[in-house]
């Protein structure tokens, strides 16, 4: 075991953890997580670490579990914070997600996914050459060590379409449209994060996710309308 791994803290190793220790615990799954994100989630009422008399934040095991749930819900399901907060108030982090099952957009079941390449092939039931084709046409990033729920959904959906004759080379326009939409959303959200304030950066990130969710809903509705009218 590497020395760094043996020194890495765990939620059960101490009653309370510093913000640096929390970031270290979650670093493998959320490598871009920063102090500003935790501060923003705290300001939004998603987590509530204790404060020492000197004002330092101290996180419990429950805080870390709750934080992991929030981050996965954002990353894997694109849930806005208001939806995550509603779910936590009604169900907590250990229950099945049923309160927003009728919600449009991504599927309602929250599942943490972290797969290596072999695991992705297995879970998506595809062959290596199919992943290589997805990479060739920009549907998947190359050189990735681990894949999440979004990548699994991409491969699974692409597989289903390929079975009906729509192969990755036919889907380039979808990738291009998604890239343009992401650029549009970032351009709208970016000014909100230019104040240098940590809370503002977190708010901009959440604002972008909310815009993305609305974009997904709009696209889905327009596609259904065009299929109906055609």
From TrEMBL:
Q: What Pfam families would the database entry show? A: MerR_1
Q: In the UniProt record, does the keyword DNA-binding occur?
A: yes
User: What keywords sit in the KW lines?
Assistant: DNA-binding
- Per its record, what are the GO molecular function terms? DNA binding; DNA-binding transcription factor activity
The reply to whether Membrane figures as a keyword in the UniProt entry is no
The signal peptide stretch is none
Cite the HTH merR-type domain residue spans from the record.
38-91
The record lists the organism as Brachybacterium saurashtrense
Task: Name it.
Answer: MerR family transcriptional regulator
């Amino acid at each position: 075991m590497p020395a760094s791994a043996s020194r890495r803290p765990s939620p059960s190793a101490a009653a309370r953890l510093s913000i640096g220790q929390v970031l270290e615990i979650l670093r493998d799954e959320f490598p871009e997580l920063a102090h500003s994100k935790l501060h923003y989630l705290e300001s939004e009422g998603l987590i509530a670490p204790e404060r020492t008399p000197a004002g330092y934040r101290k996180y419990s095991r429950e805080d870390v579990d709750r934080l992991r749930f929030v981050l996965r819900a954002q990353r894997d399901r694109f849930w806005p914070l208001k939806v995550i907060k509603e779910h936590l108030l009604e169900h907590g982090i250990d229950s099945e997600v049923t309160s927003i099952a009728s919600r449009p957009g991504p599927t309602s079941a929250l599942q943490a996914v972290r797969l290596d390449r072999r695991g992705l092939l297995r879970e998506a039931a595809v062959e290596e050459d199919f992943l290589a084709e997805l990479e060739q046409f920009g549907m998947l990033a190359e050189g990735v060590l681990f894949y999440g729920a979004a990548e699994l959904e991409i491969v699974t959906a692409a597989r289903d379409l390929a079975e009906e004759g729509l192969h990755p080379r036919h889907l380039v326009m979808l990738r291009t449209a998604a890239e343009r939409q992401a650029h549009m959303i970032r351009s709208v959200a970016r000014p909100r994060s230019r104040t240098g304030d940590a809370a503002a950066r977190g708010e901009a990130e959440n604002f972008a996710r909310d815009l993305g969710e609305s974009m997904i809903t709009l696209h889905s509705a327009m596609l259904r309308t065009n299929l109906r009218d055609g």
